[in-house]
Amino acid sequence: MKGKILVTGGAGYIGSHTCVELINAGYEPIIIDNFSNSEKFVLDKIKQITGNEITTYNIDCCNLELLINSLLAEKIIGCIHFAAYKAVGESSKLPLKYYHNNIASTVAILSFLEKISCPNFVFSSSCTVYGQPDILPVTEKSPIKLAESPYGRTKQVCEDIIHDTVKANKTLKAFALRYFNPIGAHPSALIGELPLGTPNNLVPYITQTAIGKREQLTVFGNDYDTPDGTCIRDYIHVVDLAKAHVKAMEELLRTKEPIFDCINLGTGKGNSVLEVIETFERVNDIKLNYKIGPRREGDVEKVYADTSYALNKLNWKTELSLEAALQDAWKWESSLN
Ligand code: UDP
C-alpha cells in the first residue's frame, strides 16, 4: 500500500470513481462524507468493484475540530477535496448556503492539513471559472471571468484561498483541477451519477428521459453561433477524470517545492447538444424524445479545453470516447431501474 489519501466527498459522483482508481493504483482512500448528496450504498459498490472496504468518516468537513479529533491518528499523505455543493441554479437562490459550505470546508480542510503537516492537496475546480472564453480551446492562462453564479464564484475564491495558503505556507503543494463536463459511469454499472431530484445536467436528463422517468428533454436553444446552433461542451468520461486525480496526487508526491497550479481536465474536443443526443441514440439504439426550447439563462455558447498542459504536467490524457461514456451512462441508468 502506497499511503492513505483523504477523499472528501468520496461517496459522490467523481469522488467514488476516484476512490476506485486510487485503490487500483495501490493507495488507500479514506473517505469523509456527510452524505448530504450521496448514498451510503456507494461504499458497498466500491467494495464490489475493488474488493476493498474503505474507512469512512460521516462528518461535515467544515468542522475543523471534528476533523482533528477523528482523523489525527490516520497517517494521511495527501487529500483530494471534492466535497461541495454543485447545483448552479440553486446557488443563485441560496448563495450563502454555497459560500458557507464550499468555502468553509476548503478553509477547514487546508487548516487540518496544516495541522497534520500534510503537504499534498488536490482541489476539485471547474471550467466555469473561465466563463465564455475569448479564445478556444481554452488554456489555463485564459483570464478568469466574472462568475455567472455563486457556485462558480466559490470555485474562483477557493482557488485564490489555496494559492494564498501555498504562498504563506512554504510546504503546501496544490493543484486545482478544472473539470470540463464529466459524464458517464463506471463500466461495471455499479457506481455512477445520482442526481438529487430533476437533473440539471444534459446527460442524466437524457438517460432519465430514455428510461421514462422524464417525459421529454428540452434542448436549450438552437440559435447559437455554432455549426448546428446548439451549445458546445467538452464531455469527459468520469473514469478518465478519476485517473487524472491519481496522476495529480502522484505528481504532488514527487514534487519537493511548494507549488500551486491550475490544470484543465477535458478531452480537447467540443460536442454540441445535438451531437450528444445523436450519439446517445446511435450507440444505445434508442430514440430519444426531445424538443428544441428557448435558451437557458447563463449558458456559455461554447467551451472546450486545451489539454496540452495536463499532458505535460501529469502525463495524462483521456482514453475513453464520447460513445463509451454514453454507453456507460445508459448501462448505469438501466441498472438503477
Ligand atoms: N442542456 C440542454 N437541456 C438540458 C440540460 C442541458 O439542452 O436539459 C444543454 C445546456 O444548455 C448546455 C449543455 O446541455 O449547452 C450542457 O449542460 P450541463 O448543464 O450539463 O453543463 P454546463 O452547462 O454546466 O456546462
Topology at a glance:
Blueprint: E1 4-8, H1 13-24, E2 28-32, H2 41-50, E3 56-57, H3 64-71, E4 76-81, H4 88-93, H5 95-115, E5 120-126, H6 150-168, E6 173-179, E7 181-183, H7 202-211, E8 217-220, E9 232-233, E10 235-237, H8 238-254, E11 259-265, E12 271-272, H9 273-284, E13 290-293, H10 308-314, H11 322-336
Parallel strand pairs: 1-2, 1-4, 2-3, 4-5, 5-6, 6-11, 7-10, 8-13
Antiparallel strand pairs: 9-12
Helix pairs in contact: 1-2, 1-8, 5-6, 7-11, 9-11
The structure holds uridine-5'-diphosphate.
Descriptive overview:
This protein has 337 residues and is α/β, with parallel strands linked by helices. Helices cover 41% and strands 17% of the residues. The strands form four sheets. A seven-stranded parallel sheet has the order 3-2-1-4-5-6-11, with helices on both faces. Helix 1 packs parallel to helix 2 (41-50), helix 1 crosses helix 8 and helix 7 crosses helix 11 (322-336). The model has no long low-confidence stretch (mean pLDDT 97). Bound molecules: uridine-5'-diphosphate (UDP). Uridine-5'-diphosphate (UDP) is lined by residues 181, 200-202, 205, 217-220, 231, 233, 273, 296, 299.
Strands across the major sheet, in which order? 3-2-1-4-5-6-11
CATH class of the domain at 4-183 and 235-267 and 304-318: Alpha Beta
End-to-end span in angstroms?
Answer: 37 Å
- CATH fold-type name of the domain at 4-183 and 235-267 and 304-318: Rossmann fold
Largest sheet: 7 strands, parallel
Number of helices: 11
Rounded mean pLDDT is: 97
CATH superfamily of the domain at 4-183 and 235-267 and 304-318: NAD(P)-binding Rossmann-like Domain
